[in-house]
Design a protein that fits this description.
The protein is mainly α. Helix content is 66%, strand content 0%. The radius of gyration is 11 Å and the shape is globular.
């Protein structure tokens, strides 16, 4: 379920300008996790890393 939360969060970034703006100011993964939790997405940094590489552009 938490990996699905990562995917949903990554999709939400492109659909929510306020969320995108907040993410521009983060400096560490713990801040990202806090912001994700504020928006109702609960996952760990390990789950983010497991899913994240699929979403990065090379």
């Amino acid at each position: 379920m938490s990996k699905q939360n990562v995917i949903s969060f990554l999709q939400a970034i492109s659909n929510q300008p306020t969320l995108t703006q907040k993410l521009k100011s983060i400096t560490c993964s713990s801040q990202l996790l806090e912001i994700a939790a504020e928006y109702g997405y609960d996952f760990t940094d390990q789950e983010l890393l497991a899913i994240g590489p699929r979403w990065t552009k090379e």
